[in-house]
Design a protein that fits this description.
The protein has 401 residues and is an all-alpha fold. The protein has 18 helices and no strands. The protein binds aspartic acid.
Length: 401
Amino acid sequence: MSKHHTILLLYSIVLAVILGAATGWYMGEKALMFSWMGTIFLNSLKMVVVPLIVAAIISGVASLGDVRKLGRPGTITFIYYISTTILAVTVGMVLAEFILPGNNYNLSLNSSIINDPSSSKGLSDVLLSFISPNIIASAANLEVLPLIVFSIIFGSALTVTGEKGRIVTNFFEGLNSVMMVIVGWIMYLSPFGIFALVATPIAEAGGGAAVLETFTAVGSYLMTVLGGLLIHSIALFTILVILGGRGKKYLCDVMPALITALSTSSSSATVPLSIECATGHGLMKSPVRLMIPLGSTINMNGTAVYQGVAVIFLAQVYGVNLIYSDYVLVAITAAMAAIGSAGIPQGGHIMTLMLFSFVGIPAEGFGLLLGVDWFLDRARTTINVWGDLVGAAVLDRFMKI
Ligand code: ASP
């Protein structure tokens, strides 16, 4: 998407939020006649889930090179990605449970485009859901977790298959690029979808009076995500930067990359600058080249904080009771989901939508979040990029030891 189109889309989304709220306010229940527009938008996002996740993960893992030879730096990188992402989603969930942004705003679960509420799952069920006996059936039922696990295994196998596997790797790389183009096209539908998705809950909640409540709830959701991002970056990343033997100067030196992330909402677009800044500061080339390009698609701490808050916020709004295993499931799935999310503007949307279905949150609840997402996307992308840069510093230190 060109810069000109991105800006146009941004204005259209802001306009759609205002028009959607006004329509829900003035038309009340009659505004429900627009709900089909929201359904089409959500269905188009769901339509690309399976090919997108499969292609993104397989091509991402395949680009690692022979997984048997990743050695110590590869293991540290992997542990860093997984542990910081799980911590990030936990920070998001805990903060949302503490602030309760969705508690004073209630929407009913009886809507037309609802997902089945999750049946209570024990921890063993969570573990069992990692491996599907029938991957085709899982794809058909949009069960993302076994698909992610399968794609990681498949991608790893490709790295050790040599010449014979090259054609398959190329195919998935090509498929990934095609899916990115389709996602870009779907984004053009977003102003219409967002208009309907903002109008519908306001109409359902009774029109006029609900506008203020909606904005208050969405406002506290926004503040919770920002708070989570801040806590995660101050608490965890500061410790890790110190562990990596770097300080304020590192933050200053990588500032151009962080500002680029903030202004482009894309971790992938920021990669060249991040590499430049990190090596310019004095990090060795090999940790930077391992941690940053891969991290731009795999390591998304900011996205994980946002997903944690979003799930808990909407569970509060819809009165979905989450049990212990749901939290574990969300934490693990969100960490996996970060691997499947693309480092492009709003690349985390599709995986977030999938997370909702795990815990029985209606897909249409996503509409509440979309109105402020153009702003949150920028904030979380900055943290995604900062997470990769901090990781590079930590790996650099380990490699020197
Ligand atoms: N825009 C984010 C990134 O590029 C992904 C997302 O959270 O939507 O890192």
